[in-house]
Amino acid sequence: MGRLFRKKKINTIVAEGGDEVHGGTGLHRVLNVRDLTFLGIAAVIGAGIFSTIGSAAFHGGPGVSLLFVITAVTCGFSALCYAEFASRVPVSGSAYTYAYVSFGELVAWIIGWALILEYAIGNIVVAISWSSYFNNLLQGLNIHLPYWLTTNLTTANEALAAVNEQLAKGAAATADMQAIIDGYNAAPALGSSKLFLNLPAFLIVALITALAYIGMKESKKSANAMVIFKIAVIIFVIVMGFFYVNTDNWNPFMPNGFTGVLQGVSAVFYAYIGFDAISTTAEECKDPQRDLPKGMMNALVICTILYILIALVLTGMVNYSELKVDDPLAYVFDNLGLKWIGYIISISAVVATTSVLLVFQLGQPRIWMTMSRDGLLPKRFSKVHPKYKTPAFATIITGFLVGIPAMFLPSSIMTDLTSIGTLFAFVLVCLGVLLLPKLQAGTQGKFKLPYVNGQFILPLLVAAFIFLFRDRVAASITNLFHENHQEVLFLIFILIAVVIAALTFIRKYSLIPVLGALSCMYLMIEIPVNSWFWFFVWMGIGLVIYFFYGYRKSKLANEQA
């Protein structure tokens, strides 16, 4: 057990991240607070605001704006914990490195493996979304790519089945329905099946990977330009949209109750993932201990304000029931006959998703680079390009890991998987902060998490939560052996919350990290159980790799030997 949970010292980690340790081949320190804020906005304002917000509004109605507030507060707690870690442990590696300091090697590996879900797997979804927006943009210019080159087999089969179902019911074939039929029939045969591949998704990943490969300086300039453009478009949409808001559409505010609002958890949280990607650039910051915390909080506040305003505008312009579409922002203006605004939005959506791809393609290689330095991955992952000063091999592997699946896989389940992986990382970072002050008191950073004694506040909050959900708790306990898995997860959460509340009362834990951990746990249990199954499968694969490679090759293991 001691070997599985061996921990790294903060001073050792910081020294290992220095340029002098790597023979002058460290990363370029070129990022300031503004750059970090822009990178955070680049990661957060993307597919969420242009796509998944429509699905969340369909379930929650105008009340989805409250869900953005809840999610922002949850992310805010986590961001404060990230900021403390980033200030104390200013190296690339994000939550993986923080877990190595707080919990030990096995937990660090688990969280590093979970971060692959957030960055690499999440980017597959973003690439597929980018392809959809880009294809719509081309069609607006009367350029039509072959149908079989713009989607995957699963999505094509589902689209054809939906069309056939409508036709079987006697519906008249529309131009869009006929296009799906003709496109499917025109696809090349591949044995008894058809060949479909999402070529635009692969190409954009290849281009972004090339940009990430040639340097952070070039990447930050591109990200900053894209962020300025998409924020300008979003503010324009908010201002224009308010002139067409019908306040009757905000009534009822929560048409499906709070349960309906919570159905959008995965979609809304997916819109927020990525602000933690800022922490992966620690070794490229001019003053990481000062700038990383500021960059994270700035990005989170700006994005939250924009999300809430967009949610209110969308649900005010049309009835919430109309918003279950792939491009809700363009849809509401097309409904008003303002197609030119929809066209601008489509351009902005392409730019926005491109910036998300860029930040995530920057983040993943840097986590792998750090894991490689620790011996948990082969040494090639930590090689820094002598000219471009980037983790070259890790960047190329990330490109293949994202680009190839993006051509062939559907995006549906990956959104939920990405959210689980991210929330899991957030939980461990929040709990890790509680251990951090006890580790090395002499390693104070320039940002310290405010201490709020949770001894009495947290037990009262947990008691109030149980009281508000008393009917659900009672029903879940009464029907324990006949309940669905979602309610079992809910009961497990209640049990964990009670235990943490008791420990907080006894040990006087700081309120902010504990609330952050519990908030993230609650959002996790609202994600569909099917996604949990695949999450455990993913974790199982990761543990096999660790015990066959990382456990034996670990740098700490060799030092101990």
TrEMBL record:
UniProt KW Transcription regulation keyword: no
Localisation: Membrane
Keywords: Membrane, Transmembrane, Transmembrane helix, Transport
Residues that span the membrane, as ranges: 36-58, 64-85, 106-130, 195-215, 227-245, 257-278, 299-320, 340-363, 390-411, 417-437, 449-468, 488-506, 511-527, 533-551
Domain Cationic amino acid transporter C-terminal: 511-554
InterPro entries in alphabetical order: AA/rel_permease1, CAT_C
A GO molecular-function annotation: amino acid transmembrane transporter activity
Transport recorded as keyword: yes
GO cellular component: membrane
Annotated PANTHER family: CATIONIC AMINO ACID TRANSPORTER 4 (PTHR43243:SF4), INNER MEMBRANE TRANSPORTER YGJI-RELATED (PTHR43243)
The protein, known as: Amino acid permease
